[in-house]
Amino acid sequence: VSIHRAHLIKLKPTAAQAEALARVAGTARFAYNWGLSKWQELYDKHLADPQQPKPNEFLIRKTLNAVKRDEFPWMLEVTKYAPEEALRALGRAYTNFFAGRAKYPKFKKKGRHDRFRVDGKDVQVDGSAVKLPKLGWVPMREELRFSGKIISATISRRASGWFVSLNAEVEDLTLTDAENQGAAGAVGIDLGLHTLAALSTGEKFDSPKAYALAQTRLRRLQQSVSRKVKGSSNRKKAVLRVGRLHERIANIRSDALHKLTTHLAAHHDTVVIEDLHVKGMVKNSHLAKSLHDASFGEFRRQLEYKVEARGGQLIIADRWFPSSKTCSCCGGLNAELKLSDRVWTCAGCGAVHDRDINAAKNLLKLAVGATVTVCGEGSAGSGESTNETTLCETGS
Ligand SMILES: [Zn+2]
């Protein structure tokens, strides 16, 4: 058995190398955005005249290659992987969009999407240095923590500088905790009311207790503000207290989200979440209260950069489906399931489900499809928070 592992390492480029990295990332971003607008242009032409071809990744690539030399000669000065891999990423973005797994691709912004990918066959690692095509040896802050065939290198700029995520095929599955990064397979997540998140692996993350307490206090403070005379200094003081409490709540939430997203990105190469802006907000006002708009956006943002930094992928399932009521083992529907039922037994196959973990498994199945078996005999735990893994297996 061989698996892919990713290790994110900070680069220590010279000033000239840093400038060159920015140029390559700029080229990748340009190619992606060029491809996106070309795709839209060709699609409009196709709509107007069905004789015109429908755009696809191959056609976009061909079109760019035909004009590159004349229109964008500077593109030839950087590694060919920059535009190539950018268009491949664009193709994947469209595939995910058409499959209903992701939103329509967006234009990449300078400063936010400074990254490029290089195929592993043109990457060399020697101690704490990595050789990238047309860039030469770039020093790294640490050595790659495992050995194996390099599959790819993704170079990206973050707030604190340039990083490389080295993706390698390794044989050895025995990992220490410190090493265990980006190793395991896909995971589905159900964000909830009773727990912060339930994972298809059977793990649960609780909402911090301090969060609930602070919320109760916030409601009381807000009431006290409304009882005070407008314009009075007492009211001003109370408003100030509300503001401070808001900030505290945001900090608690952010801490909890960071712990969760770091865990997810470190242990899984594919993370599947539901788009709450589509699903939950309307259907479930409780959910809206427990993890409202702003924090879902924050959760998603953290996951995006952490997962990507490790060379993994984030899949956002766009459509709503009755995830809680469907048995993740046999697909049977339990129409009678009430919101208060935390644990239930499937009448069809006898599987015992924890409500939230079952939902997470269904989400994973929906997104990753037939490649994942999320079933086995056995129970899903007591509904209490537990780190116990269910007997279900993930694999192909
Ligand atoms: Zn069943």
Task: Give the uncertain stretches in residue-range form.
Answer: 172-183, 278-288, 370-374, 376-396
Helix percent band: 40-55%
- Walk across the major sheet and give the strand order: 10-9-8-11-12
Total count of strands:
14
Euclidean distance between termini CA atoms: 12 Å
Largest sheet: 5 strands, mixed
Compile the SSE list and pairings.
Blueprint: E1 3-10, H1 15-48, H2 57-71, H3 81-98, E2 115-119, E3 124-126, E4 129-132, E5 136-139, E6 149-158, E7 161-170, E8 184-191, E9 197-199, E10 204-205, H4 209-227, H5 233-267, E11 268-274, H6 280-283, H7 285-290, H8 293-309, E12 313-317, E13 343-345, E14 352-354, H9 355-368
Parallel strand pairs: 8-11, 11-12
Antiparallel strand pairs: 1-7, 2-6, 3-4, 4-5, 6-7, 8-9, 9-10, 13-14
Helix pairs in contact: 1-3, 4-5, 5-8
The chain binds zinc ion.
Zinc ion binds next to loops.
Task: Describe the overall structure.
With 396 residues, the chain is α+β, with helices and mostly antiparallel strands. Helices cover 41% and strands 19% of the residues. It has 9 helices and 14 strands. The protein has a 5-stranded mixed β-sheet with strand order 10-9-8-11-12. Helix 4 packs antiparallel against helix 5 (233-267) and helix 5 (233-267) packs parallel to helix 8. The longest helix has 35 residues, at 233-267. It is globular and about 70 Å long. The model is unreliable at 172-183, 278-288, 370-374 and 376-396 (pLDDT under 50). Zinc ion is lined by residues 327, 329-330, 332, 346, 348-349, 351.
